[in-house]
TrEMBL record:
Main location: cytoplasm
Family listed: Belongs to the FliW family.
Recorded name of the encoding gene: fliW
Chaperone among keywords: yes
Compartments where found: Cytoplasm
Protein name, entry field: Flagellar assembly factor FliW
Keywords: Bacterial flagellum biogenesis, Cell projection, Chaperone, Cilium, Cytoplasm, Flagellum, Translation regulation
Subunit structure: Interacts with translational regulator CsrA and flagellin(s).
Length: 148
């Protein structure tokens, strides 16, 4: 399949790179089909809308940046995605002009089932994570520098 992107022009996408988000992404409910494009030899991916070339998100592997990152996937979410074993977790990255100000959203990870290629952004509840963790260093206290 060939898709159009703003950054790379036309790209050929393999079927295993396509993911369906039945409810879209928050704020982009109409966009349900995305390609997950790996950026070779980096912990980054691009989630590119199949229909809208101007809609893409930079994703990162949260476990590379925050090795202690963990959460429990609610049963209803796992059931909706039909997850039995394999699961991919990626988080949206916001790049800033000054790299040290770039952030990763650990509060709302993108959860992907590579078996049926279903995906969903899940907002975690009762968690110490938030939407703007520093991308460059794991903080000693996830819940803030002031210890509380």
């Amino acid at each position: 399949m060939i898709i159009e992107t703003l950054s790379w022009g036309k790209l050929e996408i393999e079927e295993q790179e396509l993911y369906h988000f039945s409810k879209g992404l928050p704020g982009f409910d109409e966009e349900t089909d995305f390609a997950l494009i790996a950026m070779a030899e980096t912990p980054f991916w691009v989630l590119q809308s199949v229909k809208e070339k101007g809609l893409s998100f930079l994703l990162g592997d949260p476990f590379v940046f925050y090795p202690s990152y963990e959460f429990e996937l609610p049963d209803d979410e796992a059931e909706e995605l039909n997850i039995h074993s394999d699961v991919l977790v990626r988080c949206i990255i916001t790049l800033k002009e000054q790299a040290e100000q770039s952030t990763i959203n650990l509060l709302a990870p993108i959860v992907l089932n590579p078996e049926n290629r279903a995906g969903k952004q899940i907002v975690l509840h009762r968690t110490p994570y938030h939407t703007k963790h520093s991308l460059l260093q794991e903080q000693t206290a996830i819940d803030g520098k002031d210890g509380g």
